[in-house]
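Each record in this resource describes a single protein on a pair of labelled lines. With that in mind, the following record should read easily:

===
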Amino acid sequence: MTKATIGLTAVHRRYVPYSHAHYAGNLVDGAYVLGLFGDVATEVCIQADGDEGLFASYSDVQFLQPLRAGDVVEVKATISRVGNRSRELEFVATVVCRGRTDLSESAAEVLAEPLVITRATGTVVVPVA
């Protein structure tokens, strides 16, 4: 029996290591965040339907701010629509801590307000219960 309900949410946090910097300025590519969205979507499917589900599509992705190596990023997925086998999810990625290499090599700070870096809408599908 499905527990899929609108508003069901999963949240993951991850430190972004410097080995993931892909561009000048320690920037990390947008695909990194999409991978994290896939991970948190999997947890939502497990909680809602007892199955990992499959990611079917993104209908919208907005890269709003950069992700940098040394950041702690939080990704959240929330069910916004429930179909027979499909679930529409709203995703948001925020930076909650940021490296401060301008102060020292290992300096970092907790941000007073999380910085929204990416928003997306996607659809997952799960087996028929």
Observations:
- The first strand starts at residue 9 and ends at 15.
